[in-house]
Specification:
alpha+beta, five-stranded antiparallel sheet, 15 strands, about 25% helix, globular, binds magnesium ion
């Protein structure tokens, strides 16, 4: 494992990729409504990323065809945008967007409600977001890597949900996926010591039922094995001496609010 430590100057430079990634996610999320296709969301995202001076980080990555990942209901991650996938009232959709600006990558995700959703789905969204904030809050000098996953897992499992183990967060910088892997589970105070200058994408994938997932035949889409819904929230965060610094934001907020 070779973790690339970023200088304060480099972290500063990464903020622009983070800002564009966050803006695109927010604006694409605002378009989520019954009747729109995930391909329309994708086209909007690509246009906006380029207007903002960025390059879609996902498009062509390992052959992925889209600028966003769009994953509905029991789909966990890596859904390919399609004109045939039309959002319906009561769906939830996880959207993952990434932008490259000046050679630096930003990566973030959010799960949105399509119209009115069931209380059970609403709770899944709230708990998964809360687990992300808990993970971000643990991204501190003095903690170890698994403290992040432990924080995520504690929130999710207290609500009775399954924490996806087969897909994890990651280091990020000039490449979208760098060392280390950042699991969403683990024992407190284990793993490598967290150091200032590490930049991580923390991204809980939380299932309403079993934690088990299956890879679908297109080679990308991942679904829950039991067909129950799944949610995905992600932010890119830099570990600094002053605490976690969230980079995928349009209005810098230094401290995660975990409550
Ligand atoms: Mg990611």
């Amino acid at each position: 494992m070779s973790i690339i430590i970023k200088s304060p100057h480099q972290i500063e430079a990464m903020k622009e990729a983070g800002r564009v990634s966050a803006k695109v996610l927010r604006e694409v999320g605002a378009l989520v409504e019954p009747g729109i296709s995930t391909l329309e969301l994708d086209a909007f995202a690509e246009t906006l990323i380029r207007l903002e001076g960025g390059i879609p980080a996902f498009k062509g990555y390992g052959g992925f065809p889209g600028s966003i990942c769009a994953s509905i209901n029991e789909q966990v991650v890596h859904g390919i945008p399609s004109k045939n996938v039309i959002l319906k009232e009561g769906d939830i959709i996880s959207i993952d967007t990434g932008a490259i600006v000046d050679g630096w990558v930003g990566d973030n995700a959010w799960t949105f409600a399509v119209g009115k959703i069931s209380p059970a789905k609403q709770r899944l969204l709230e708990v998964t977001e809360k687990s992300m904030w808990a993970g971000l809050d643990a991204a501190r000098v003095g903690n170890r890597l698994r403290d992040i996953g432990h924080a995520v897992q504690t929130v999710a499992e207290a609500a009775g949900y399954g924490v996806v183990k087969d897909y994890v967060g990651h280091g990020i910088g000039r490449n979208m996926h760098e060392d280390p892997n950042v699991p969403n589970f683990g024992q407190k105070h284990t793993g490598i010591p967290l150091k200032a200058g590490m930049v991580l994408a923390i991204e809980p994938m939380i299932n309403m039922g079993t934690d088990k997932v299956k890879q679908m035949s297109d080679g990308w889409l991942v679904c829950t094995r039991d067909g129950k819904p799944s949610a995905h929230f992600e932010k890119t965060v830099a570990i600094t001496e002053e605490g976690p610094l969230i980079l995928t934001t349009e209005t810098e907020h230094r401290r995660p609010v975990n409550d």
